[in-house]
Design goal:
The protein is 3% helix and 47% strand. By secondary structure, the protein is mostly beta strands.
C-alpha cells in the first residue's frame, strides 16, 4: 500500500499536479541590535530627554486631536495637528497649530490653518517643509468626491505662510489620492518624496515635480495579502536614488519596501524583524548620519526610538520615549483611548523634537538630545 502510494505521488509530481509548498520568505533584517527584551522596563529611556504638552483639549474647544507635525523656521518652532469637535476624521475637522519662539518652552495661542467646512468636506493633519525659503504645510482633505473605503475624495491641500501678513494662504490642491505623513525629503533626481496612504488605506508615496510643490504624483507600493492593510500609513527615508518605506501592517511587525529609482517602482512590501503594532511610525535621518525610526512597541502604551550606526541601514539601538498608560481621554469621542501615538520628528540645534498624540486629545512634545542617540562604535578586536 505504501509502495503504491509513493508511486502515485511520484506520478502526480511528474505531471506537475502537486506543487511543492514554497518556503516562507525570511523577514527583512531591519533590526540588528541585541534581542529586544520582553520586559519593556529593561529598555532605557533617552538620557536627558524632556517632556511637555503643547496643546490640551478643553471643554469649550475641539476635543479630538491627532497627527501632530513640527518644524523649525527662522528661529520659530511650528506645530500643527488635526482638530475635530468630537470624533476622529469627523465633520468640521480642521488643521490648527501653535508656535514657539523659545525652543518649545512656551507656545502661542491657537491658530487655524485649514479651516474645515460646514458640509462633509474637511481638513485634517499633514506635513511641514521649508522650501526655497518659504514655510509650507500640506494637509489631507477628504469627505466629498470619489467613493472610497476610507477617505472619499482624498486630496492634499497646501498652505504657505505669508511672512508679510503672518497668515497662512492656500495654494490649492497639490496631491491626489494621498494623505502625506512625513516631512518630504530630496532624492538624487531633484524631486521630493513623502510617505502616505491612499483613499482606501493602502500604502503610497507622493513625489514632487522637482521644485514645483503644487504638483505631486502618487505611486502605490505593492504588497502581499499578509500585510492586511487597514490604515497603511507609510514613512520614507531616501539616499540618492534609493528610497526605503516603513509601512504599518499586520503580523505585529514593521513592513518594508524599497525603490531604486527615486520612488517610481517598488519591491513588494515584506515583513521585517522589527516588532511594531498597527500604528503610524516616523522614519528619518539624523545629522550624525544615523537613520532612526520612532514607533510604538507591542502597543500604544510604549513609544520608542530605534537608531542605526552612522551610515548603516539597519537599526541596532533602542530607547523609550514614553512608557506606561497615558492620561485617559477626558471627553467622549470615536476611536479615543489611552495612548502615545502617531509620532513626527524634526531635528534642530542639536535636538530631535518629537510630537505625538496623547489619548487623541492632547499634543505632546519630547525633546531628545542628539548626543544621547549616538551608538558607540564596535569594539576593536585587536586583529
Amino acid at each position: 500500500m505504501k509502495f503504491a502510494l509513493s508511486i502515485l505521488v511520484g506520478l502526480l509530481l511528474s505531471l506537475n499536479l502537486i506543487v511543492a509548498a514554497e518556503p516562507k520568505p525570511q523577514p527583512v533584517m531591519l533590526w540588528t541590535g541585541p534581542p529586544i527584551p520582553a520586559d519593556l522596563e529593561q529598555i532605557p529611556f533617552v538620557p536627558g530627554m524632556t517632556h511637555q504638552t503643547i496643546h490640551r483639549a478643553e471643554e469649550d474647544g475641539y476635543k479630538f486631536l491627532h497627527g501632530a507635525a513640527i518644524i523649525e523656521h527662522k528661529g520659530t518652532l511650528y506645530a500643527n495637528w488635526a482638530n475635530s469637535p468630537t470624533n476622529e476624521n469627523g465633520p468640521q475637522e480642521t488643521l490648527q497649530g501653535r508656535r514657539s519662539k523659545d525652543g518649545g518652552k512656551t507656545w502661542s495661542d491657537l491658530e487655524i490653518i485649514g479651516p474645515g467646512f460646514a458640509g462633509s468636506d474637511r481638513h485634517s493633519h499633514g506635513v511641514f517643509l521649508v522650501h526655497e525659503g518659504k514655510l509650507w504645510t500640506i494637509c489631507s482633505r477628504f469627505g466629498v468626491g470619489k467613493p472610497a473605503k476610507r477617505f472619499p475624495g482624498l486630496q492634499g491641500e497646501a498652505f504657505v505662510l505669508n511672512e508679510a501678513t503672518d497668515r497662512w494662504e492656500s495654494q490649492g490642491i497639490v496631491m491626489q489620492n494621498c494623505w502625506p505623513y512625513d516631512e518630504p525629503v530630496p532624492m538624487a533626481n531633484g524631486n521630493l518624496i513623502t510617505g502616505g496612504q491612499d483613499k482606501d488605506g493602502l500604502p503610497v508615496v507622493a513625489i514632487s515635480h522637482g521644485n514645483d510643490l503644487t504638483h505631486w504624483d502618487t505611486v502605490l507600493i505593492p504588497y502581499p495579502p499578509e500585510l492586511k492593510p487597514s490604515f497603511a500609513e507609510t514613512t520614507v527615508s531616501a539616499k540618492g536614488k534609493t528610497v526605503r518605506a516603513i509601512i504599518r501592517g499586520g503580523a505585529g511587525v514593521a513592513w518594508i519596501a524599497t525603490s531604486e529609482d527615486c520612488g517610481r517602482t517598488w519591491s513588494p512590501a515584506q515583513q521585517s524583524n522589527l516588532p511594531m503594532p498597527r500604528a503610524k511610525a516616523y522614519f528619518g535621518k539624523l545629522s550624525t548620519g544615523q537613520e532612526y525610526l520612532i514607533s510604538n512597541l507591542k502597543n500604544r502604551d510604549t513609544l520608542v526610538i530605534s537608531v542605526s550606526k552612522p551610515g548603516e541601514t539597519t537599526l541596532s539601538r533602542m530607547w523609550k520615549i514614553r512608557h506606561g498608560k497615558s492620561e485617559p481621554p477626558r471627553f467622549t469621542g470615536f476611536a479615543k483611548g489611552k495612548q502615545w501615538s502617531y509620532p513626527y520628528a524634526h531635528e534642530h540645534d542639536g535636538k530631535l523634537y518629537v510630537v505625538y498624540s496623547i489619548g487623541k486629545e492632547d499634543c505632546g512634545l519630547s525633546i531628545l538630545p542628539i548626543e544621547s542617540l549616538q551608538v558607540p562604535a564596535a569594539p576593536d578586536s585587536g586583529q
